[in-house]
């Protein structure tokens, strides 16, 4: 081993300890938040659910312009009008993120009519809510195209300009189910796991790109119509999250340039347990908590 390699080997553990201490201090002390006054924010699935609350929160925090994408004009128009009445410029476009050519075409229209997107929020998602053998093939494909491949197309459409401007942020509204799957949502869990891997790779790939960051949000069950009917065994201990809170934490994570956010923070414990507990113990946790059967009463929308 030459002197340079030896020096790097000695420095490495010191760097790790430094960054752990730095992260600990940041948890205790408020960090500087990014000013959103010049930002143009595009939110997929922005007409309802968490997407609607994200639009309201970005507007509240001072975003310059908001752009909503979705498949249902009724909800897009309602949310857009609400944001506009509150004083923030807002536009909406019909776009199915599962359709690659439509994404690229609408991205071009957005640049021409509104301007460069500086914050992309990949929020659009669908859930089929059935077991593998009960699932329709087309429904399974739809989940993968919307929840996973849609992020490829939107990110490819807007990231190049962010890199040119050396200013931008890519956000993914993921799910804790990407790291801890449940029965009855095999399409959703699979697509969200792939989405998590996509964001993890993208985050690392942009480390040397100044001014461009990533945020992945992994919430527990959120109280929206998408997962209506889903029930855990102890709702007092594990209450569904409010979409307003998820939106607030997401926008705050963008402003603080936080890469990964677990909601609530106790979900980190679940991830840690999965790393060392035997499979039989994990299965008992699923049964005890009710996650093993929580989708039996599912009647949400796709």
Task: Explain what the structure shows.
It contains 9 helices and 7 strands. A 7-stranded parallel beta sheet has the order 3-2-1-4-5-6-7, sandwiched between helices. It is globular and about 55 Å long. α2 packs across α7 (243-255). 48% of the residues lie in helices and 13% in strands.
State the order of secondary-structure elements, H for helix, E for strand.
HEHEHEHEHEHEHEHH
Overall geometry: globular
Q: What's the helix count?
A: 9
Number of strands: 7
Strand order of the largest sheet: 3-2-1-4-5-6-7
Rg result: 20 Å
Largest sheet: 7 strands, parallel
Report helical residue fraction. Answer: 40-55%
Overall pLDDT score: 91
> Which strand-content bin applies to the residues?
5-15%
Query: How far apart are the termini?
Result: 57 Å
Poorly predicted parts: none
**What structural class should be given to the helix and strand makeup?**
alpha/beta
Mind sketching the topology for me?
Layout lengths: L2 H26 L11 E5 L4 H12 L4 E6 L2 H13 L3 E6 L5 H14 L5 E4 L14 H29 L2 E6 L12 H20 L6 E8 L23 H13 L4 E4 L3 H8 L4 H11 L13
Parallel strand pairs: 1-2, 1-4, 2-3, 4-5, 5-6, 6-7
Helix pairs in contact: 2-7, 4-5, 5-6
């Amino acid at each position: 081993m030459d002197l340079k390699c030896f020096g790097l080997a000695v420095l490495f553990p010191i760097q790790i300890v430094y960054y752990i201490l730095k992260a600990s201090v940041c948890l205790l002390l408020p960090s500087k938040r990014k000013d959103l006054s010049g930002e143009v924010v595009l939110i997929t699935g922005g007409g309802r659910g968490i997407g609607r609350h994200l639009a309201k929160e970005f507007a509240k925090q001072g975003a310059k312009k908001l752009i909503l994408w979705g498949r249902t004009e009724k909800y897009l128009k309602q949310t857009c009008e609400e944001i506009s009445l509150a004083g923030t410029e807002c536009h909406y476009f019909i776009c199915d993120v599962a359709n690659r050519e439509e994404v690229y075409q609408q991205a071009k229209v957005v640049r021409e009519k509104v301007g460069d997107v500086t914050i992309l929020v990949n929020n659009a998602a669908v859930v089929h809510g059935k077991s593998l053998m009960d699932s329709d093939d087309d429904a399974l494909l739809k989940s993968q195209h919307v929840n996973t491949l849609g992020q490829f197309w939107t990110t490819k459409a807007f990231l190049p300009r962010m890199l040119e401007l050396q200013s931008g942020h890519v956000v993914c509204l993921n799910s804790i189910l990407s790291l801890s799957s449940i029965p009855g949502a095999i399409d959703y869990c699979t697509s969200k796991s792939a989405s998590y891997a996509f964001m993890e790779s993208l985050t690392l790939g942009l480390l040397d790109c100044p001014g461009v960051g990533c945020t992945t949000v992994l919430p527990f069950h959120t109280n929206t119509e998408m997962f209506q009917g889903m029930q855990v065994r102890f709702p007092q201990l594990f209450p569904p999250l409010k979409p307003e809170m998820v939106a607030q934490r997401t926008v705050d994570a963008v402003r603080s340039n936080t890469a990964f956010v677990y909601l609530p923070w106790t979900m980190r414990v679940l991830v840690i347990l999965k790393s060392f507990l035997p499979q039989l113990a994990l299965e008992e946790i699923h049964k005890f908590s009710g996650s093993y059967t929580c989708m039996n009463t599912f009647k949400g929308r796709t």
